[in-house]
Amino acid sequence: MDTFIITLPPRQLPTLRGWQVTPAHLAYRLGPGPHLFRADSAAPRGGLMVIDDRDFDGLGSTGPLCQEILRECQARGFSGAVLDFENRLPPLEQITGQLNEQFARRGWTLYVAEGYGSCAPQGRVMIPSALSGGSLQRRLEEALERFGESRVALALEKRREDFFLPSPTGSGQPLTQQELEELKRRLSPSVFFSGDLCTRYFTYMSRDNGAHFVLFDDGDTLRQKVEVARRLGIHTFLAPWEDAAPCAAQLGIQRKPEGRQARR
Asked: pTM for the complete prediction?
């Protein structure tokens, strides 16, 4: 059976009512001290906490910080945490390793980015669904070989990127949904589907900077990525609610039985 973990701010939690999902609260960050900081208006309970590292300076002792995180999980009834770490610093590796041990001892689940997978041998490793080259199936097969079936989770995200060609870095310019729609309206391009990437794409020429290659997701491409993962035995998915909500039924997210909804 699939597990869908939905990331969203606590104020949007009522929008999950009626869906069989696990909320992951976008309400926590690491800051100077180091300390755990929570949004002033946030008072989430249950589900998972999401912790980002945008304000983390790498200074200070990590032990007391980990204790703060454990106390917050206990106080809020969380069953685990998502470490949304974008930087790679030795103190963040230490934090991940310490939380891995403490969470495993309590039966909680820790979700970490792929680069931190070796720091959390009992944790789940989040593999991004977006690729600019190669094959999603092969990408997931390699992750399964490295981490094992029980540890791999697919992190879904609707990506929209505009690449200059050639693209030596494999990174494009992010587009908003509005920018993508305006580009499609202006160019009326032929849109194709990549079976390897499980995403849609089109190309165009600019007088200013030459050839462009645009990759983008929609509800159907997310569904196909989920199906690739399922065929490989992966049944844990994370997704922002803003991306998953319009295509929740397509993805296979189940509704709660009426009786359970009424009791809430």
From this structure: 0.92
